[in-house]
Design brief:
Elements (H helix, E strand, L loop, with lengths): L1 H18 L16 E11 L2 E6 L4 E6 L2 E2 L18 H19 L3 E5 L13 E7 L2 E2 H7 L4 E2 L8 H13 L8
Parallel strand pairs: 3-6
Antiparallel strand pairs: 1-2, 1-5, 2-3, 4-8, 5-6, 6-7
Length: about 180
């Protein structure tokens, strides 16, 4: 009996401590199947940031992975979008990106696709994900339409295909590339 307690007690303490760990910055429980989560869009914050309700009922903020739309709630930085220096034009396209995201996503059911290369959360604690609506890559549509640049500062498995789309958008002066 004594040996049994020496074996079971540490295991029970470990299990209890793991179950009581802080869930700070993690509303995603466990590893989602196929790195996908079902979610409902509660609110579009801007062109590349959303608030969602996950399948487990918890809410979270999502930063769209692999893309960067011009800022609408703070100032854009010269050089962030290549040679574009017209900050008013960028702000206008940031507002258009936000309007597009609202039109396409607001209060819709989506699939969040996580990317192991990028990690689960970004610098500000937001969940990093590709958003799929009706099996279509919403993030990619932002790049194709010129509402976003490819975010090369982080890791993304879809970066190369997004860069191809960005080159086409730039060549055609789509969206912010008309600035």
């Amino acid at each position: 009996m004594k040996n049994f307690l020496y074996m079971i007690l540490p295991t029970a303490i470990l299990a209890l401590s793991l179950s009581c760990q802080s869930s700070e910055n993690t509303n995603v429980e466990g590893t989602p199947e196929n790195n996908q989560l079902n979610a409902s869009i509660i609110r579009v914050i801007d062109g590349d940031t959303l608030e969602v309700q996950l399948g487990n009922g918890k809410t979270d903020k999502v930063r769209l992975l692999g893309v960067d739309t011009p800022e609408t709630n703070s100032k854009n930085k010269p050089g962030e979008y290549g040679t574009i220096t017209d900050m008013e034009c960028l702000t206008k396209w940031g507002q258009k990106a936000t309007s597009y995201a609202i039109e396409q996503l607001d209060h819709k059911e989506v699939v969040l696709v996580l990317d192991e290369a990028a990690g689960l959360r970004g610098y500000y604690g937001r969940l990093l994900a590709y958003v799929e609506l009706d099996k279509k890559d919403f993030n990619r549509s932002l790049v194709q339409l010129g509402y976003a640049r490819v975010y090369k500062e982080g890791e993304s498995q879809r970066e190369s295909e997004y860069l191809n789309d960005q080159r086409v958008a730039q060549d055609n002066f789509n969206g912010l590339w008309s600035c």
